[in-house]
C-alpha cells in the first residue's frame, strides 16, 4: 500500500518514515535506511510530515533546534495539532532545559485538548520540578482521574516523588503509584531505575524493594 502511495505521487513526505518503520520490522535494514534518508531529504508540505521529520531528526541525534523548528512549523500550519505541541514541549523541557517554555506550550495544548491526560501529567511533572507543589498535584490527580494507564500513573508517581522534597509524606503516594504501575506492567521498573525524577526515593528501602528483579526493557510506548 505504501509503495502504491509513492507510485501514485503522494506528496506527504511522512510516507517515507512510515514505510521505513515497516521495512525495519520486516528485516529490510537497507530499505528502511533508504526511506529514512529520503524522508529527511525531502521538504515536508503538511503538518504531520513536519512532525514526522522532527521525530526522525531527534532519533538520529540531530541538533534539537532543527527538530523544534519542524514541530513549530507543524503547529503554525495546524495550531490544533496535538503531536506538534507535545513534541515542542518535549524538546523544550528534555532537550533544551526550557521548563517554563514547555509549561506554556502544555498550557496551550490543554486549552485546545482539555481531555488530554498525558498533557496534564506531563505538565504536572514540569511544575513539580520547579517546586510548584499545589499545581503539580492538581495536574497529577486530574490526569489519573481521566486515564489510569501505566504511563499516566507513572508520571503521577514522578510528580509525588519530586514534591516529596518539600513534603515528605508525598513519598508514600509516589511509592503507591509505582506499585500500581509495576503490577500492571513490570517493564516500567527498568525506566524507574534510571529516572532522575525519582531520585528523592532512591535511598528508600521500600523503593529498592519495588525495583527488585527489574527487567531490562525499553520504555513502553
3D architecture notes:
- With 221 residues, the chain is mainly alpha-helical.
- 70% of the residues lie in helices and 0% in strands.
- It contains 13 helices and no strands.
- The protein has helices spanning 2-7, 14-25, 29-41, 47-59, 64-77, 82-95, 99-112, 117-129, 133-146, 150-163, 170-184, 188-193, 205-210.
- Helix 8 (117-129) packs parallel to helix 10.
- The longest helix is centred in the last third of the chain and has 15 residues, at 170-184.
- It is globular.
- The two termini are 25 Å apart.
* Estimated share of beta-strand residues: under 5%
* Helical residues, percent: 55-70%
| Low-pLDDT runs | 216-221
**Tell me, what's the shape?**
globular
What kind of sheet is the major sheet? none
Amino-to-carboxy terminus distance: 25 Å
DSSP helical segment count: 13
The beta-strand count equals 0
Rg over CA atoms, rounded to whole Å, is: 19 Å
Q: How confident overall, as mean pLDDT? A: 94
**Structural category:** mainly alpha
Could you give the order of the helices and strands? HHHHHHHHHHHHH
Amino acid at each position: 500500500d505504501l509503495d502504491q502511495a509513492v507510485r501514485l505521487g503522494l506528496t506527504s513526505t511522512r510516507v517515507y518514515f512510515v514505510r521505513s518503520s515497516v521495512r525495519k520490522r520486516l528485516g529490510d535494514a537497507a530499505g528502511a535506511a533508504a526511506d529514512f534518508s529520503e524522508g529527511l531529504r525531502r521538504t515536508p508540505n503538511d503538518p504531520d510530515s513536519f512532525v514526522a521529520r522532527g521525530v526522525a531528526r531527534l532519533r538520529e541525534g540531530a541538533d534539537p533546534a532543527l527538530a523544534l523548528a519542524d514541530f513549530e512549523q507543524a503547529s503554525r500550519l495546524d495550531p490544533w495539532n496535538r503531536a506538534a505541541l507535545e513534541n515542542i514541549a518535549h524538546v523544550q523541557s528534555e532537550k533544551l532545559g526550557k521548563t517554563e517554555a514547555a509549561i506554556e506550550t502544555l498550557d496551550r495544548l490543554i486549552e485546545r485538548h482539555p481531555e488530554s491526560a498525558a498533557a496534564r501529567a506531563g505538565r504536572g511533572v514540569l511544575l513539580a520540578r520547579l517546586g510548584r507543589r499545589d499545581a503539580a498535584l492538581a495536574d497529577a490527580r486530574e490526569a489519573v482521574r481521566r486515564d489510569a494507564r501505566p504511563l499516566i500513573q507513572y508520571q503521577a508517581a514522578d510528580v509525588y516523588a519530586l514534591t516529596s522534597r518539600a513534603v515528605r509524606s508525598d513519598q508514600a503516594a509516589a511509592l503507591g503509584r509505582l506499585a500500581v504501575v509495576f503490577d500492571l506492567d513490570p517493564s516500567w521498573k527498568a525506566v524507574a531505575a534510571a529516572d532522575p525524577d525519582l531520585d528523592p526515593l532512591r535511598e528508600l528501602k521500600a523503593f529498592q524493594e519495588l525495583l527488585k528483579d527489574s527487567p531490562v526493557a525499553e520504555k513502553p510506548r
